[in-house]
Amino acid sequence: MLHVLVVGAGAMGKTHAAAYASMPGVKLAGIADIRLEKARQLADEYEAGAYRSFEAAVEDLGAGQIDVIDVCLPTPLHKDYVVKAADIGKHVICEKPLARTEEDARFMINYCRDKGVRLFVGHVLRFFPEYVKAKSLLDQGSIGKPAVIRAGRGGGYPIGWNHWYSDFGASGGITLDAMIHDFDYLRWCFGEVERVYAKGLNGRLQAQLDYSLVTLRFRSGVIAHVEGTWAHDGFSMNLEMAGTGGIIDYDSAKDSPLLFKSRSSAATIPGVAVPESPLERSPYYRELEHFMSCIRDGSEPLVSAEDAYEALRIALAALASMAAGEPVVVGHAALTLAST
Predict the structure, then answer these.
(1) H helices present in 213-304, as ranges
(2) How many Å from the N-terminal Cα to the C-terminal Cα in the chain?
(3) What pLDDT sits at residue 207?
(4) Which of 251, 278, 314, 336 has its CA at 20 to 30 Å from residue 117's CA atom?
């Protein structure tokens, strides 16, 4: 039995707590949040302990009654709590983005390695059935040689604790906080990104609106256009992969969200539609169940901390491009402006 302490009782903390509470072989040991009433409401629902702080939880439960610490806090707090977890020898699950800066992310990865604990990062898009199916079709060669990709996500502006999303220095806006999902997924599919060009509001407006359009050029030659918006009602995600042999098209707002069309046929092939079933486990459940399995058997996760680090570097390159008004090269060293 793995005992998990969730730190943070916000939207993601609730999602993670619900997953652990129904997961075989896992015990939700407690919820810690400085808003104790929030922690109590969530803990009471799942018969777990409620604590005002990380330290109070560890003192009450005892370090021996905690195996995993799940950090579901605003991005600027990730580093401190990952370090706290590693200091008491616990494996860590941290929500994306791993950190606000490349330096903090590298420090966290190295710190956990040096302390002998495992660090997992919640890039959940790799666990959505439609995205898994799209990559499977891609890997099978269904669209031939991939060439142009379009991806996006959007909805209303998120309202978090103390409106922290509106502090661009803390959240990085939609580019860092949300579009990093697409950056991670596309890197999983197409390999390393060599150049980034981006336009967006980049924290320039005080109103609760944000928009970003990022073009990625991969070393493989693939070009991807990624759009993000926090200026519209509702939430949706979309993905289109176009290659020499066909097109994979996904739109969560459509009745048949995932479709494949061969260039040799004008008709869409119906057999690859993958609708979400209300009876299926959520992608968040699948992600956390996978992490628990990796902890038990020592296997490597589908998404590693290094993957999370690289996704962060792409997002930061996009922000740097917006600020400079020029393309940015993503190398193994520091980000550099590209010559046009």
Answers:
(1) 283-297
(2) 56
(3) 65
(4) 314
